[in-house]
Amino acid sequence: MGNRLSQIATRTGDDGTTGLGDNTRVPKNHLRVQAMGDVDELNSNIGVLLCEPMPAAVRELLVDVQHQLFNLGGELSMPGYTLLKPEALLQLDNALAEHNAALPRLAEFILPAGTRGASVAHVCRTVARRAERAVVALGANEEINDTLRRYLNRLSDLLFVLARVLNRIDGGDDIYWKSERMARAAAAESESKEPNA
Predict the structure, then answer these.
(1) Where does this protein have coiled-coil stretches (predicted)?
(2) Contact assessment for residue 152 and residue 132, using Cβ atoms and an 8 Å cutoff
């Protein structure tokens, strides 16, 4: 494995192709390569998120997610190999249940905003959704491990929940969308509480 990275600038990709882990070459716009790139971008954004203040348990979880995304990307680069284990999906399910249980129920959609950490988590969430779409597109053309798609789907949900967690580190809250429906409901509730003249 050590020799694989001994030369970064190989110039073999100058012709618009790239090598997969099984030594086959495919065009750089191949669905598999696009999925690999989106997963790599997601992992890089999580690296940026890890620069932000957060609870130690969340940090530990996200570091492990980075390792699992490396497994996921490795599996995409080696057709026929399985690197992402079902236990990785279970870890996300458990984290989702734990963190979601500590949050108040949402009354309305929230904006991808708040603290810097929460905002970066939302960026990660949207990249996770794009990576999921890329894996779905690949799966429509080639047989791939179903766990890849499920992991990305669950991870985007978790990143949404973690954004809410990060907004509350210093007593903050979600930034709610100011929808007309909510404004009407608030006005109606206010009127119903007014005493009759």
Answers:
(1) none
(2) yes
Q: b/e string for 157-188 if b means 16 or more Cβ within 10 A?
A: bbbbbbbbbbbbbeeeebeeeeeeeeeeeeee
Q: What's this model's pTM, rounded to 2 decimal places? A: 0.83
Taking residues 52-65, what's their average pLDDT? 97
- Please state the φ and ψ torsions of residue 155, each to the nearest 5 degrees: -65, -40
User: What Cα–Cα distance (Å) separates residue 142 from each residue in 76, 118, 135, 139?
Assistant: 11, 35, 10, 5
Q: Averaged over 8-12, what is the pLDDT?
A: 58
H-run or E-run covering 128: helix 116-139
Read off the DSSP letter of residue 99: H
Residues 110 and 175: beta-carbon distance below 8 Å: yes
> Which whole number is the average pLDDT over 27-35?
83
Render pLDDT for 103-124 as a digit per residue (tens, 0 to 9). Answer: 999 878 899 999 999 999 999 9
Query: How many residues would you count in the chain?
Result: 197
Torsion of CA 96, 102, 107, 109, to 10 degrees: -40
